[in-house]
What does this fold into?
Amino acid sequence: MSANKAHHYINGEWLADAPNGFCDSINPATGDVIGSAPNGSVSLAEQAVTAARDAFETSEWASNPRLRAKVLLDFANRLEANKDRIATLMATENGKVLTQAKHEVAAGFGEARYYAGVARNVFGRTYESGPGKMSLMTREPSGVVSVIVPWNAPVTLLVRSIAPALAAGCTVVIKPAPQTPFTNAAVMECFAALDALPKGVVNSVNEYGTEVGTVLSTHPEIDVISFTGSSRTGKIIMANAADTVKHVSLELGGKAPAIVFDDADLDTAVAEIKRGSLALNGQMCTCVSRILVQDSVYDTMKDRMAEAYEKVRTGDPMTDGVELGPLIDRPNQERILGIIERADVEANMVVRGEAPKGDLAQGCYVTPTMFEIDDVSSDLVQDELFGPIVSFERFTDEADALHKANATRYGLAASVYTNELKRAMRMSRKLKFGTVWLNSHNRLLAEVETGGYRESGVGRLHGIEAMNDFLETKHVYYEAEN
Ligand code: NAD
It folds into this structure.
């Protein structure tokens, strides 16, 4: 299997079956077709679930943590050995700037190594409730997990779900995003090459529509759903899972505010906000999408952010020094251009983004946009826009900053810029977000949990708490006197 094929991977075999035809993967920087991936079907999804169930019940996977640790370490080494090829493939498929794609792959193999260690550190507890009355609390793998992921970070978002699932002893069926099947297949190759991995522990089925995703969120043999994607799809998955009462882990949309107080180091704030809003070309769930600035530094920050955005180098993601690549596809480029037109009418435009002409015209590029608005109820402030576009908003004091920052239905991540430690800690306590960065943005670590409040999700990934999604606690009771 080479990286220019993107077949399904089921029960240790590559399958080219395409009962629902093929789906083209398109380079958003050029419009060129990279290749075609076979579309899955209900039957292929069921085959993958059966393989995962058999592997869970009959192989030693679920009961051998040392085997799991070895597989995760070997997988990490394979990923590292292929890091440049996978990063290049990813940048070609989703338009991510190559240096960011390289960081993403490195984060992926780092995370697999972290969970290889965790695999050998899952312990239960004991309790003696009276003389000779023993309770054992054992930690058991939950079973078969479906892992459904989006295109914007197809390596780390996949690894951060499957690594804890595998470390716990679960088996997995993956549904990659239709935009990045080749990157996913390159990661699957790293598993396929591992002799120690029992067949059926890791499976992957492509699809363009929702058939496979529906099987993976309704099938009675699926115990856990680990979903990363939009809040809209997350709600459908949660509803689908209700009938068989599955455990759901949902990592959903975001609308991250960056809150700048008048005592902040503005050089740091400008640099962090610029980088934090343009990561993955503005298409990252934790991207800064609202800049909230205190009165007395409002005009200064506005000028400085405008200057920073105007200087952004937009271009081919493979070129050194490029900061902003294309959006994922033409419909999303058109969607963002439409939002810019609306913002032009409903808000005060500070930096107006556009689709560049000339060499870049064949790609799905849009340059950065910043608009000024003071109505938190506007859709422009409430909705996840998911592109290189930010609102610029004013606040008076801490209470006003908190009120405005907490005023959307999302609660994934926020950042606060101030040199006063007590204020930073007060703000971090009262912000209703799963992550609060102080004087920085977008620092994500394998060891530290991430996840959302409110409509940004349910559960936590990364860190030790990610294991909670994939483990059941069982009470075994014993009376020595009986
Ligand atoms: P999406 O919800 O459209 O798709 C995500 C995945 O779900 C894809 O694999 C898609 O094919 C699949 N899917 C779509 N409909 C489905 C259905 N009915 N049943 C089962 N699966 C289905 O999201 P997207 O546009 O690909 O990704 C962008 C979104 O993901 C943004 O909202 C972003 O904020 C969010 N995201 C969140 C995180 C996080 O950690 N919270 C990380 C990355 C992206």
